[in-house]
């Protein structure tokens, strides 16, 4: 999978596409104006950049994703854990929970996930 990296604003723009796809270029321009206060030229510039990165496709005025939001964010999470914690999920969880305590529901969800993986 490609090494996608998006800034905060690009991520918000990508989320607009994922939430509304398939959509026309005109619809995307209207959404970007409403949610990001972007002009048409900015919308098309950023869309072109994200298409060149392989995230989206704009063909005949219809914009669609080439990678799902879930796959994109999974890849980003994996990359973060790999680069920051040498790929160790336990090290990530230890750092994460050092300042933020998990709720009983979150602990139960994690136990279920581990249990399902073990089966």
Helix content: 55-70%
Structural class: mainly alpha
Shape call: elongated
Second CATH tier, the architecture of the largest domain: Orthogonal Bundle
* Total individual domains: 2
Question: Major beta sheet, specifics?
Answer: 3 strands, antiparallel
Number of helices, counting only DSSP H or I runs of 4 residues or more = 6
Low-confidence parts: none
Q: End-to-end span in angstroms?
A: 28 Å
The CATH H-level homologous superfamily of the largest domain: Winged helix-like DNA-binding domain superfamily/Winged helix DNA-binding domain
CATH topology of the largest domain: Arc Repressor Mutant, subunit A
Strand content: 5-15%
How is this structure best summarized?
By secondary structure, the protein is mainly alpha-helical. The chain is built from six helices and three strands; from the N terminus they run αβααββααα.
Task: Itemize the secondary structure elements and their pairings.
Elements: H1 8-20, E1 23-24, H2 25-36, H3 40-52, E2 56-59, E3 62-65, H4 69-85, H5 89-99, H6 104-118
Antiparallel strand pairs: 1-3, 2-3
Helix pairs in contact: 1-2
